[in-house]
Amino acid sequence: MENVEITDVAAEGKALARVDDMVIFVPYVVPGDIVDLQIQRKKHRYGEAVAIKFHAYSQRRATPFCPHFGVCGGCKWQCLPYEDQIKYKQQQVTDNLTRIGKVELPEISPIIGSAQTIRYRNKLEFGCCNKRWLTKEEIAEGKVYEQTNAVGFHTSGSFDKILPIEECWLMDDLHNRIRNAIRDYAYDNGISFYDQREHSGLLRNMMIRNSNTGEWMLLVQFCIVTEEEKRQALALLQHIGDRFPEITSLLYVNNQKYNDTFGDLEVIVFKGNDHIFLEMEGLRFKVGPKSFYQTNTEQAYELYKVTREFAGLTGNELVYDLYTGTGTIANFVARRARRVIGIEYVPDAIEDAKVNSTLNGIENTLFFAGDMKDILNKEFIETYGRPDVIITDPPRAGMHKDVIDTILFAAPQKIVYVSCNPATQARDLELLNAKYRVTAVQPVDMFPHTQHVENVVLLQQREA
Known about the structure:
By secondary structure, the protein is an alpha/beta fold. The protein contains eleven helices and 22 strands. The protein has helices spanning 82-101, 136-141, 174-188, 227-243, 297-311, 328-334, 347-359, 372-375, 378-384, 401-410, 422-432; strands at 4-5, 8-9, 14-19, 22-27, 34-42, 46-56, 123-129, 150-154, 162-164, 203-210, 216-222, 247-254, 268-272, 276-280, 283-287, 318-322, 339-344, 365-369, 389-392, 414-419, 436-444, 454-461. The chain is globular.
């Protein structure tokens, strides 16, 4: 397809064009671009394509700042000016709530943009693999790479290859230097990289976290089978610990499973502490390697302020905080509530939530660990009391229907629904619609240069 004009922005970070009544989804282009398209996949009414030639660039196009743009798969909207990104995110929220939720809505408040649009994350994970991903340009060159080991990100459509990342703009530059130092030490000392297919190789994965208190955490996942591999792993950690005194929490895991999850594995402290602290409005939050914390620290504060404002607490309310994580929201609102009960699936996160209450002198919180649909039931509510306000911040899949049914049974006056996926949020709003009406909607941009958007909705009980 030649000389096709891109006309709009679609879901999943793609843009779209219309050709002969067919909708075509295209990544890494913006409205106003004139391109030649190569169809990759075709259905009856839509197709997916890539741009193989640009005839004209849109006046609205921004110049991507990352050298890995277009290959890595992250930050797909770098080619869109930031003011356009938040405009389309606002539209995404509106479309999801109206088309999927089909509930009566108030005027949706203008999205709260992120003050930082680069280096805004406090956590990143990188894979280590013995098969590096080759770009189309590298394949065309026909160059033979002696070094096939790589540290970086998985690319779309390939589970067993890693795109080498030299510089990522999502986090403070120190993380680039730490990651590249691990890579170079492994190269120089003959450390084996993990093979996804063979399930072998020492260096497997790394997670880097930082905080607004100046602390840094590094957790390295190894697959240690022999004593020699253990010696190599400890030597690498010693090298990184000596070179980067900024790392206050240096940890490792011996993961011999077939996936990179380590929630059920022992995390070993090599140097420093087993946690870092983040601060918000005078509160200190302990965050361990298994803990969930919003990855945009500064925007998390904006998100939680909206949540607290929507809750409208006076000091007399019993609040349930569902999917509480490390108790960030629970502790953030506790001083304006009579009592806050937090529930979370991850036991380690709940232990951190309890510590966070103690650290901040908060005595009116209570935390429980377990599957939400199993813990939050009628017996639980009869034991601990009917909540006046429920705050819920579920994962992308939204809330299980059993949880929604229990919320309806609990019948709080207000529900504050925080979501990282307006589509599943809209589905849940429709289930709550019989007894609750939406009275406020506030989108918040937590992830600049991506299509993702956070959204906070206030629901109030309908009059009988």
